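hey team, just a heads up i'm posting the complex here instead of the shared drive bc the drive is being weird again. everything in one block, sequence lines first with there labels, then the predicted structure for the whole assembly after. its two chains so it's a bit long, scroll down
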Amino acid sequence: MARLRAILGALFTAFRRDTKSLGSFASNNFFLMSLLFLQQAGVFVYLIVGLVMFFPLSTDPLRKIPPVRLALWPLSPRERWLLRIASPWLNPLTWILAALAVWAASGKLTVALWAAIAAVFTLGFIAPSLPLAPSKELWRRIPNLPGPLNHLIRKNLRELLSTLDFYAALILSATVLASRVAGQRLPQEALLPITVLVVLALSSYAQSLFGLDGPAALTRYHLLPIRGWQVLAAKDAAFLLAAFVLTLPLAPLPGLAGAFAALAVGHAPSVNQRREQTRWRFSSGASFGNGLGQLVLMAGAAGLVQANPLFLLPVLAGYLGSTWWYGLVIERGRLDS
Amino acid sequence: MISCRDLTRRFGDFTAVDHLTLEVAGGAICALLGPNGAGKSTTVKMLTGLLPPSSGQATVAGLDVAKNPLEIKRRIGVLPEDLGLFDDLTVEEHLLLTGRIYGLTSHETTSRTEQLLRVLSLADGRNTFAGYCSNGMRKKTAFAMALLPNPQVLFLDEPFESIDPLTSKIMHDLLINVAARGVTVFLTSHILSMAERIANQFIMIRGGKIVWNSSVVELTQPLEDMYFDLVESPSAEDLAWLGSGRS
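-- predicted structure starts here --
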């Protein structure tokens, strides 16, 4: 039993550290700005955040132990079995599910709803162990783009697609698309706020563009014979592509203007205060001030371009100026410090 | 081809590289040897522009490293200490990216990529993401990236570590061939037998200072003996508890 206690103790520590990173949503623009400006009206935003976070929360704690290490440990079959039974209880969601089961049994919750929640949890729990592993194959199929920065942009798209920010924006965008396909007419004045909300969901990523690049990737950026602005442009191209596609069912041109504004403001914290990010988590924002600045400029740029598309030109000029300047900052080696 | 004078790098109070002065001629294969923490990787980083020196000067391929960072990058191939790979790119994509960024045509890039994948036994794992590659595959990918643009100078930080014997032999032969065509190779290694086979200039450093700098013809005894004499002696301490019964 001492062996089992030691393993469960270590597993608890590792799992707790991992789940701490889920707290990144608290400094994410999407959640923070919705809390500030929408308050109770932002329930749907909190639901989206909760839904998107449910999957990474539903992981099997035992997966924290490398399979080879687990196989090498001198554990008896009985100890392995006990470890399998006990380890899921290190995940707080297991306890919540158990509590909901008690609720369902007492009639306070429908069994069907409990079963639906349990099914999603179970799917998240066992999915990584299934021999499907489609994600890497899908990642590889990201289409090629013209130009020498093609593979850098594709890499950056893969990084963006492994943050929860993208999926929160996707749910918003897909909801609007589904309602349009179903023939429901959205009021014209609703399109712009929802467009800004979609870009807002992505905007924290624009503040931490190098957060998923490890130290080795930074070394490579410095070795490649390209200018700093090109490194930034490859990052931004992935962001702009995602923002454009996600705002297509809404107001694409104002969406693009919002994305340019988000990037122009986001370059400073991305380059000057690189913060490491974790995959399958929400990006953590740089600061409340920067997030607010992003929101104001995004909303302003999107609104102006909605009124007159020619306003896209000054927005673009501002973005290009920011890219050039922070490109120089990258060349001075600021990214590493 | 590589020249530095009084090259020094300090990290706070610690001096990692201390007034290093050296010359490596065109077409030479120079092995920089020394224990962990001796300053080998810091030297490579300064010579490749990855780290600014605290003082001193370095020129590579006729250019001042501090004044021509972009032009230097176009002329050198580097296998850095941390390999410099992107987890989200496959082995093949790393090579395709390198070719296009160094200005090769699409045809040249594809052709060289295919050759390097085949020669370095990377073809089977070409679609594997770097984050999922073995250490050996990652090392070979970074090595292929260094060779692909056909550089004038190659900087290789521990190229033979975690590489299988066959690929080591292939890399050894490739480096001998490129050096014969005038490419300068500057490498660091802990595998003294390999360094002795491949290099024609040896520089040993300890505590950031050069303790030996000579050409191969000046070696008066086996490299390993010289290393243990000049750089560090093996520890004679025994771990008595090992094999002394059950733990």
